[in-house]
Write a structure and sequence with these properties.
Length: 146
């Protein structure tokens, strides 16, 4: 902070002038640091880890939606474009009861993609949504809980 006196000699009092340049510099540095750390933390936390289960049995009912790292979508092992996902799911769910969608995804997919697909499944008429689990040993499950 800088204090300056009036230049005229008529004794009007003290004027306070705040130099905000250092304050602006600090805010810009903090903004840059925040932007860098936010982008790193979002990227590292956005991957989906499949749940682990000791005893898994294949789901015989429901529609299986598979999503790969290459952004390919399969409905019951049939490759479909993303634009036709809702209509394909609606048709597939119309033929089964109960209306269950089983999501099966790669470990490296981004969480936002999974949420988008599950939202489309709900809009297509799914009553329940399940996430496929890979078979794990008891030791792996205990290790993941620590």
């Amino acid at each position: 902070m800088a204090i300056s006196k009036p230049s005229s000699g008529n004794g009007g009092g003290i004027f306070w002038q705040i130099n905000i340049t250092p304050l602006t510099d600090i805010f810009l540095v903090l903004l840059i640091i925040f932007m860098i750390t936010a982008s790193i933390s979002v990227e590292s936390a956005a991957h989906v880890g499949l749940p682990l289960a000791e005893n898994t049995s294949p789901e015989k009912r429901g529609v299986v939606v598979t999503y790969t790292v290459d952004h390919e979508i399969f409905v019951n092992s049939k490759d479909i474009p993303a634009s036709e996902l809702q209509s394909t799911l609606h048709d597939a769910l119309g033929r089964i009861n109960p209306k269950i969608v089983v999501f099966q995804g790669d470990r490296k997919i981004i969480l936002a993609d999974m949420v988008k697909i599950l939202r489309i499944a709900k809009a297509a008429g799914a009553d329940q949504i399940a996430i496929a689990a890979r078979r794990a040993s008891v030791e792996e499950i205990e290790r993941s809980l620590r």
